[in-house]
Structure formats: structure tokens, C-alpha cells
Write a structure and sequence with these properties.
By secondary structure, this protein is of the alpha+beta class. The chain is 31% helix and 32% strand.
Length: 202
């Protein structure tokens, strides 16, 4: 069962619903991180655009995500660190029934990258999806060249299932992605607990 809204907290890291009033903070972080994020940002292929179609406004994007979340098809979280907006973790493509799966996408402010924040946030999301929502399979699909993002999946012990050819349209072109997968039962102790144990042993 997918419930929404949901807020998850671990120390100073908080995942809470993305809101329309996040517009200024979201735009400020994105503007400061254009070069950092552009190589990995999803884009719309020109051949798929409708004539005169304009990109959605932030408010319309959040409202659409909210509707999808209430319908159990998406979980759009803002990532806060010490109460400051620092990025986004979004679970999309949720299907229950015989599949019980979905995928996680994420981005973070370069000012706080490399501190394990996103690794913890994704672990929180995985535990919620499997432990509370009853999901069976979670995917994270990452460009092969995106070392920092791949390290998140690898630190969390997700299984590398190989390359998906031309999987998503990224930064203006169709790009291959590495597919990392977590299946219910892979980590009985929980993803966050495994991460904590790993950190204590280092």
C-alpha cells in the first residue's frame, strides 16, 4: 500500500513531500548546479515534442507529481539537510499487482555532495518501499559515466544487472544506463542498517 504524504527522517537528513512553495529554493539550487547536473538531466527528444509545447512550470510539475503520488504511482520527495533544501529523491514508475516495482531517481546540491547524504537518503527510501509499501523490486538506472551516482548504488549493495541500451533521453541524446536492482529479501536487516554497519566497520 502506497501512502502519501510521507516524511522520512534520519539524523539531519529529511525526505518530505516536494511542495509548490519550494520553487525559489529549488530554482536557486538548480541554478547554482547547472554544470554539475546538466550531463545527467533527462530531456525530451525533439521528435516527441508537440508543436508549441512548453516545459511545465515548477508549480504544475509539483501538482502533477502530487496527483501521481496520491494515486500511488510516484513518491516525489524534497531532500533537506539541517532543514535546508538540497535536492530531490523521486520514486517513479510504481506498479503494484504482480510486479510490485518502481525506480528511484535523485540529484543533490554539489555543495553537500560526497558526504554520504544521498546514500543515506536512498537507503531510507528503499527501506520504506520494501518494508512499508510491500514493494518487491527497486531499480536505479544510471549513466555508466556517472561515477558518484553509481557509488551510491554500489555502497548500498544493489546488484548490477548490466547495461540498458539507449534507456533514457539525457542531455539531448539517447543514452545507455547501468541498471542496479534491489529485490525484497536481498538485505533482510534493511538497507539503512546494512549501511550503518558498513560505516562502523570502516
Amino acid at each position: 500500500m502506497i501512502d502519501w504524504p510521507v516524511t522520512l527522517v534520519e539524523g539531519d537528513i529529511r525526505l518530505r513531500p516536494l511542495r509548490v512553495r519550494d520553487a525559489r529554493a529549488w530554482r536557486d539550487v538548480r541554478a547554482r548546479n547547472i554544470e554539475w547536473l546538466a550531463p545527467w538531466d533527462a530531456t525530451l527528444p525533439a521528435e516527441g515534442a508537440l508543436e508549441g509545447e512548453a516545459p511545465p512550470t515548477f508549480a504544475s510539475m509539483v501538482r502533477r507529481m502530487g496527483r501521481e503520488a496520491r494515486a500511488g504511482r510516484m513518491l516525489p520527495w524534497a531532500l533537506e539537510v539541517d532543514g535546508v533544501f538540497r535536492g530531490q529523491v523521486t520514486v517513479g514508475g510504481i506498479a503494484m499487482g504482480s510486479l510490485r516495482g518502481g525506480y528511484i531517481g535523485y540529484w543533490i546540491d554539489s555543495e553537500v555532495a560526497g558526504r554520504g547524504i544521498m546514500t543515506t537518503a536512498v537507503a531510507m527510501a528503499c527501506d520504506y518501499l520494501i518494508g512499508e509499501c510491500g514493494m518487491h523490486r527497486i531499480e536505479i538506472n544510471i549513466r555508466p559515466e556517472n561515477g558518484p551516482s553509481r557509488r551510491v548504488a554500489e555502497k548500498l549493495g544493489l546488484r548490477n544487472e548490466g547495461i540498458r541500451a539507449e534507456y533514457l533521453h539525457i542531455n539531448g541524446q539517447w543514452c545507455d544506463h547501468v541498471s542496479y536492482v534491489l529485490v525484497a529479501g536481498d538485505q533482510p536487516e534493511g538497507v539503512l542498517q546494512r549501511l550503518r554497519s558498513q560505516q562502523l566497520s570502516q
